[in-house]
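User: I've been going back and forth on whether these two constructs are worth ordering. Before I decide, could you fold them both?

Assistant: Sure. I'll take them in the order you sent them. The first construct and its structure tokens:
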Amino acid sequence: MTATRTILSPNHYNGWTKGPPRAVVIHSTRSTIASKTDAQELQSTITWFMSVNSQASAHWVISELERIRMVENKYPAWHAVEHSWEAYGIEITQPTIDRPYKEGHYQNLVAVCVPYVQAGIPVVHLPTLEYGDSRRGFVGHNETAQGRRDGKSDPGPQFDWAKFIGMLTAATEEDMALSDADYPQFHAMLVTLLNSTDPKYGNAAYAPIIAALRAKVAALETQAQAAGLKRGDTVKIEGTVT
């Protein structure tokens, strides 16, 4: 789903020079002004991110009614210090820690996160994120190493992780599930990757294939979990495998 508005901040790095992003960090805006409406909180955040003096930005700012694109995905935004180099950042409007998130917040958040899942980030709530570790998924700012170090509390106790993960799973599994029509394309991607003699698997030429494979594997893992399967289980596959 596209942005309701695009307002590009000047605050970002020039590229993912330390490797492709592997996670999404969820923030809340927290102006601390309880009297602000959701729309006012949104506008204050946009104004702040547009100022070079703020030294801050995010890929998206999400309100109950809007999805504001502020940094293109090809650039790291300035949202979580060292984690800015390895994760996308999304801000959700919440003036104070006790302000409940509305259904529209979750719907708009899910809408902008679907493309990240399609690019290979699994629908998983990470318990923590350490710089340079191997974890992939979605994490709260307060759960990152930088967030813990700096005393961050967002997105906070009002954010329902189970609801968000459930909604995102539902939004992506139909699109990502392997249908009969998917198998020829999936098989072709595997053959292309596995039969290549090029040792540089990090080459940009492989990026679309690897991203698609990661997304399909993540979808299969989600389907397996929903079916109550676990690693080591034996399953019967019906049909023709080529």
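The second construct, handled the same way:
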Amino acid sequence: MTIRSNITRMAGYMPGEQPQGGKFIKLNTNENPYPPSPRVLKAIRAAADQRLRLYPNPTADSLRNRLAKFHRCAPENIIVGNGSDELLALAVRAFVEPASAHASKSSVSRSTVDHQQGPRI
């Protein structure tokens, strides 16, 4: 199997500066300067049972149904993913034709998705 040329031309991921010494909170990687609240810890402990060893429902039906009810829409209008990078990638793959014109870059993730999909930037 041959890897697409637009993928092989991509530069590898280069992380930003990684401060050392333990006295830094890296907000750009979603670190938090505050510990979780006691209520959050209690909820985590309550949920930490045998379910943690299993993969979740791949269509996230329960979550999508609850979100749809909260937002008063159909579950079919809710998409759940493993973070914004995955959701952006899914959207580009679904709606952008390879080698088509595309809006200017707005983030590293978007740039990576563009290169994977193959549109002109």
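Notes on the second construct follow. The chain has one domain: 26-117. Residues 26-117 form one domain.
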